[in-house]
Automatic annotation (TrEMBL):
Domain Bypass of forespore C C-terminal: 105-172
Organism the protein comes from: Shouchella hunanensis
Taxonomic placement: Bacteria, Bacillati, Bacillota, Bacilli, Bacillales
Pfam families with a match to the protein in the record: BofC_C, BOFC_N
Gene3D superfamilies: Bypass-of-forespore C, C-terminal domain, Bypass-of-forespore C, N-terminal domain
Ranges where the Bypass-of-forespore C N-terminal domain occurs: 52-101
UniProt name for this protein: BofC C-terminal domain-containing protein
Domain of life: Bacteria
Amino acid sequence: MYKKIIHKHWIPFVLGAFSVILFYSTLIIWNENEPTEISRPDAVSEQADNEVELLFETVFADGISQEETRKEAIYSLQDFWYEYSNWQVVDQKKGFVHFKQELLDLSPEVKQNGYLGLSDDNRLILYTGQPEAKKIIQTYDQLERYPLTPSVQLALAEGMKVSTVAELVAIVGQGAQ
């Protein structure tokens, strides 16, 4: 029965299918010639939709965190994600991306003016500034169980200058032995 219906009405069916295909192909060809908003750099800078606010958070080995905020126009998502591939995405919303990076290095503040010392209750502390005006960065509580050599204790009482992670690990590691 279906064969008879299809056999009788094949011409309108084929014409209808052909007209639908012709209509969609015309739309596709017509839209190919129009420049898209993303392909025109001048249009991207005019449009606020392509501008993103970026928050970069850098966490250093000494516990100090620095943040930087800036706005950037995105021309290509693939290039954007490639450029920041070594950063971890913490949060992402429309028009906003929060990146975080942990560095195994001391912060610039500690590199320039960082000291290790002992607190009044004999805990090892990392601080910046002169020994009289300590700005405590981090306290190492676990070291109070381990004895330090007398020479290291004397040096820590006066404040030992620290400018690299290796120096910090060497002193902290000595207290943990």
